[in-house]
From TrEMBL:
InterPro entries the record matches: Cyt_P450, Cyt_P450_E_grp-IV, Cyt_P450_sf, Cytochrome_P450_monoxygenase
A single cellular component GO annotation: membrane
Binding-site residues, heme: 478
Keyword hit for Lipoprotein: no
Pathway: Secondary metabolite biosynthesis; terpenoid biosynthesis
Organism classification: Eukaryota, Fungi, Dikarya, Basidiomycota, Agaricomycotina
Protein name (database record): Cytochrome P450
Location within or outside the cell: Membrane
Cofactor(s) this protein cannot do without: heme
Protein family: Belongs to the cytochrome P450 family.
Record carries keyword Oxidoreductase: yes
Highest taxon of the lineage: Eukaryota
Keywords: Heme, Iron, Membrane, Metal-binding, Monooxygenase, Oxidoreductase, Transmembrane, Transmembrane helix
One Pfam short name: p450
Amino acid sequence: MLLSIIQCGLLLWLSYVFLNALRWLCGSSILDNIPGPPSESFLAGSLAKLHGADSWDFHKTLEEDFNGVVKIHGLLGDVQLYVFDPAALHSILVKDQDLYEESSIFLILTGLLFGKGILSTTGNEHRRHRKIMMPAFSTKNLRGMLPVLYEVAHRLRDGLIKPHLGAGPRELDMYSILSRTSLEFVGRAGVGYSFDPLASGEDSIDQYAQSLKSLTPAIHKLAVFLPILPLVSRIGPPAFRRFMLNLIPSKTLTILSKVVAVMNSKAAALVDDKNQKIRHGADVMENSNDIMSLLLKSNSTADDDMKFMHDELVAQTSMIILAGTDTTSSALNRIIHILALHPEVQAKLRAEIIDTKETLSHDELVGLPYLDAVIRETLRLYPPVTAMTRTVTQDCILPLSKPITGIDGRRLDAIAVPKGTEVYIAIAAANHNKAIWGPDALEFKPERWQNGHAQGVSVRMSGVYGNTMTFVGGGRSCIGFKFVQLELKVVLSVLLRCYCFSVASDRIRWKLGSPAAPSVDGRPLLPIVVGRVNT
């Protein structure tokens, strides 16, 4: 039985290789005329350079040496596009968004891991999920979440930092501290559950939290097999596929299977507990302002054709936790690192914060101009996710804001893109585009932002956040981008009032990923010297 399963997997892999090789042998692609870097190999193209943990220089080359749309060589000669032209991005994300869908690998992977939710659905089904969830992220509801966010930030300050500073400034691993804090933020404000006590020397022993830490590493170890997911997902019903996977002697698959089981079980328990309280009219639910409680209360009165089923609610729970943890952690770590590298910015920001009361209302917090500018500039220059993919669902024309010159010397005002083409939404490249942001686009300058708008920028981008692509745009833009901003502002307003940050090592390197993460000598670390503010 095991031998036949392995043979089946090998056959699927060889089929994938054969089909791509046949496509390459049958003739050139109409995209071959688009300029781009040379292929590194026939087998992997330039994908290793594009997705490598230390690929920042390669992305910089794509940004600076090419003009808006770049040809990338994929597996076995497959031609892909790396896009940061404003008009092209508007077409992909807004005007023609139905022609550019999430990649099948991403959709199938999230569906297999979590079930049917906002990340794993497309078309009208995705729009239904988004429509039901959007009200939970309204400004009114965010105001209601603010006390919980402050509570978590105070526990961070008093439980994870303060106990270490009794003898003066000390080097702390802010990566570990802020990762724990991000999970607790999304736990408390996202699903109404505490994952971590945020106490010094008392790491979280919550099973869900431990499983979440193992999820991404396990997926990365299986990355080489992801291209065959669309084929594997069609073999039999889900129960049969799980049975097959359990028979494969892989330690990584075993870990992943256990992680998914724990996460699904915990998410189901959270949904069942909240639904039971709603059915019994528990008074405690009246004051519950976390995203899942708001969603469940809304779902209980929704029309039957709009209502989420139980398995969908379970999937949404895990997706909210996953999507809200790693990206927020990456953004928090980057901002603290940037402030440590720019003491003059840190001092100016601290002065603005100290000049206010200790606990601010929602409007007072979002109204702090320099705090807003620092966060916007950091997220512009260092978006947690560098690029996202879309798959073209039918032959289409991609417009350009500025023409490019093809390899044959012809002027191209638009690009004919064939069905099935993988397209990268180049988030960082769009945020760094000197044609939009000016010659100082790669400089960290919070002063370029005033009242939420970048000065001197006339080209309109399709992103939902400050003319940047950090949270992308259109129907699949980040639904919780205002929630993330609020988290960042609460943390900075609490920590900078008490502590100052300086760089502890010049060996800190940021590893490219989804999302990016700090590293020292290959280990996930952000060593920062933390001291008390002298007031």
